[in-house]
Design brief:
There is one protein chain. The protein is mainly α. It contains 16 helices and no strands. Helix 1 crosses helix 4, helix 4 crosses helix 10 and helix 4 packs parallel to helix 12. Keywords: Membrane, Signal, Transmembrane, Transmembrane helix. This is Formin-like protein. One of its GO terms (biological process) is actin nucleation. It holds the Pfam family FH2.
């Protein structure tokens, strides 16, 4: 009959959405028996169009098993592409964390040195590294005004350092500012642009933070499990190899399997590489990845949350510097760093100890 041609394995005849709808229409065993035994010509009851369609479909051997296999094929390419893109994002996120100069050299070093200055004279005053979780605690340490946090201080130190570096390297912009306050704030403006851009520099880290390792693993397993469904349908199909539609179905399934096996192997290999890199980067910062087994991607979540806090602090620091710039234009006497000396006097007194030695950050060891 005409509808047999739609169940011969050609997914182009349906599309994934229609195949999903057909699967939802699959009758229970009891309903299937009733439909098969129903004789409309001798019954006062009339079947509605949907019931007539189901009764016709049931004449196709294991029709809904075919539909399930065809749906798997229809979704195969998009699911493979999704997994490949996801694992590529994880790999790139690991590379971003490991190679970001600003994140490693400036943020981590500045935070580490700040902590050492706060704990000078204690058994915690000579730390060489710290866990990324510490970044989120910087907003818990408040200044004497009860509002400004230690992260504000760290950001001010970083933008001052970055601004000086950019000003020194930019040979095309001569330093003609006569007002030292304005000159200092101009450097900070340049530095703030760099620090505020860290979120874009770690864009794939934020994407990785939204991923669920269990979901990705289940998708990979589902991808491999679909091959078993097709193999089962092919085994059932062997009993019907004398029928034209059965032969067409068999040929299309076999052709797909040859391509799918190679794709699945590549996806599984990419998954292994990506998870290995995530484990390595976790150990790089946290020392023991076994503690993060329940949430393998937690490291990305910590950085994402920190970047969100950092963005807010950068905006606040920018507003403070803008007000200071406005005051300097009106020739009001203001200190070069108006916020920090009064709020964190102990650290400010040691501010000169901040180093621009790039080798210290890259040689950081994990705790």
């Amino acid at each position: 009959m005409w509808y047999r041609i739609y169940f011969c394995g050609n997914t182009d005849s349906f599309g994934a959405e229609l195949l999903e709808t057909l699967l939802k229409m699959a009758p229970t065993k009891e309903e299937e028996i009733k439909l098969r035994e129903f004789k409309e010509e001798t019954s006062p009851i009339k079947l509605n169009p949907a019931e007539k369609f189901l009764k016709a479909v049931l004449d196709v051997p294991f029709a809904f098993k075919r539909v399930d296999a065809m749906l798997y094929i229809a979704n195969f390419e998009s699911e493979v592409n999704y997994l490949k893109k996801s694992f590529e994002t994880l790999e790139t996120a690991c590379d971003e964390l490991r190679s970001s100069r600003l994140f490693l050299k400036l943020l981590l070093e500045a935070v580490l040195k700040t902590g050492n200055r706060m704990n000078v004279g204690t058994n915690r005053g000579d730390a060489h590294a710290f866990k990324l979780d510490t970044l989120l605690k910087l907003v818990d340490v408040k200044g004497t005004d009860g509002k400004t946090t230690l992260l504000h201080f760290v950001v001010q130190e970083i933008i001052r350092s970055e601004g000086s570096r950019l000003s020194a390297s930019n040979q095309s912009t001569p330093r003609t500012l006569a007002n030292p306050v304005r000159e200092e704030l101009e450097c900070k403006r340049l530095g703030l642009q760099v620090v505020a851009g860290l979120a874009n520099e770690l864009g794939n880290v934020k994407k990785a933070a939204a991923m669920d390792s269990d979901v990705l693993s289940s998708y990979v397993a589902k991808l491999g499990g679909g091959i078993e469904k097709i193999t089962e349908v092919l085994r059932l199909n062997e009993e019907l190899n004398s029928r034209d539609d059965a032969c067409q179905f068999h040929d299309r399934m076999q052709k797909f399997l040859k391509k799918a096996d190679d794709e699945i192997i590549r996806v599984q290999a990419q998954e292994s590489v990506a998870l290995s890199l995530v484990k390595e980067i976790t150990e790089y910062f946290h020392g023991d990845s076994a503690k993060e087994e329940a949430h393998p991607f937690r490291i990305f979540m910590v950085v994402r949350d920190f970047l969100s806090v950092l963005d807010q602090v950068c905006k606040e620091v920018g507003r403070i510097n803008d007000r200071t710039m406005a005051s300097s234009v009106r020739h009001f006497p203001v200190p070069v760093n108006p916020m920090m000396p009064q709020l964190f006097p102990r650290i400010h007194a040691l501010r000169a100890g901040f180093s621009d030695d790039e080798s210290s950050a890259t040689s950081m060891s994990s705790p």
